[in-house]
Amino acid sequence: MPQLSDRITTLNKGGSDGWEVFYRARQMVAEGKDVIELTIGEHDIGTDAAILVAMHTAALNGATGYAMVPGIAPLREALAERVAARTGVPTTADNIIVTAGGQPGLLATHLATGDPGDAALYVDPYYATYPGTMRAASRPPVAVETSAEAAFLPDAAKIDRLAVESGAKSVLINTPNNPTGTVYPGDTLDAIARVTQDRDLWLISDEVYDTQIWEGDHRSPRALPGMADRTMVIGSMSKSHAMTGSRVGWICAPEAAVDALIDLATVTTYGVPGYIQQAALFALQEGDLLETGIATPFRRRRDLALAALKGQTAVGVIPSQGAMYLMLDVRSTGLSGRDFAEALLDAHHIAVMPGESFGTSAAGHIRIALTTEDDRLVSAIETLVAFAGTFAHAA
């Protein structure tokens, strides 16, 4: 076999992608074992039946051929209206390209904002695909490390220093954040915006959890003064409308950037199936009530989880202000996040994600996805705390 490219063989730098606990838990389930899975951000409810009916009807009515590469006009217009209403920034369909989910949007924006060899900054902890996405674009990933003690908020001065040292062309942020649940406050966003302007950087803003805000307010950096022309926002129907498998997202960007992204889509995905786009349009037209209904269980479970964690000292809790996750500090056990997760799975068949799966800043932590029934979630957390306590007492 001829040699494969470095680009494809070094996406994970030849090492682990940190998801072994998840894969092992799924294997245990396949073997018939009862596992409480608190690993990935997959809704425990399916896509709303009305959306599926709309998708089915669109397919039966002939929307199964090639769709417009940048997205069907009604969907682009609806997305533009949604963005404008939520951010106050004038937005038209020319600022929108529909993508096959948020992940292709991440790749497209990194291909668009730098050339091979141009560094790309991202905040650590990070969504697991970020560094590999940058390597796929032949751009060296540079982590901006944070700390639990600072609620995993990025320091703009560090972003500035790393941008200069690396010659970066872009910085990627994610708020509300996966995996930490942190929502960036206004002063943090203002400081990051100043750095991008001072250093002439593109800002890529992953906002797929913008409907899951439990404390504070979500602010899109595109709405800050001087930022609309240097910001690319990634959105998705996956989290807001429980349409993870439908693979439909979007990029909101300056018109000239969207024109170039359309050229890229023409030679990659060639658009998103029309019947899926029409279903997405139907879902958006259902309004905020549908989105609120999908977010509400995660708000409730977050509150239940925090109540279950209250009053104990074995596990530290990182404030979760948004998204469908909780980040817990298990450093008191003396174990790494990965070792704790492996031991918990072995002892109690509870599957969580090691913090190390999301970067070095989250070492010694675990991430819990609030994606199972209330009683089962609370029981799992109580068991987890008791399990952590046995290590703390032994120490």
From TrEMBL:
Keyword Cell wall biogenesis/degradation annotated: no
One Gene Ontology biological process: amino acid metabolic process
Domain (Aminotransferase class I/classII large): residue spans on this chain: 33-380
Catalyzed reactions per annotation: L-aspartate + 2-oxoglutarate = oxaloacetate + L-glutamate
Alphabetized GO MF terms: L-aspartate:2-oxoglutarate aminotransferase activity; pyridoxal phosphate binding
SUPFAM superfamilies per the UniProt record, alphabetical: PLP-dependent transferases
Keywords: Aminotransferase, Pyridoxal phosphate, Pyruvate, Transferase
EC annotation from Swiss-Prot or TrEMBL: 2.6.1.-
Swiss-Prot/TrEMBL cofactor(s): pyridoxal 5'-phosphate
Family: Belongs to the class-I pyridoxal-phosphate-dependent aminotransferase family.
Name the UniProt record assigns to this protein: Aminotransferase
Organism in which the protein naturally occurs: Allosediminivita pacifica
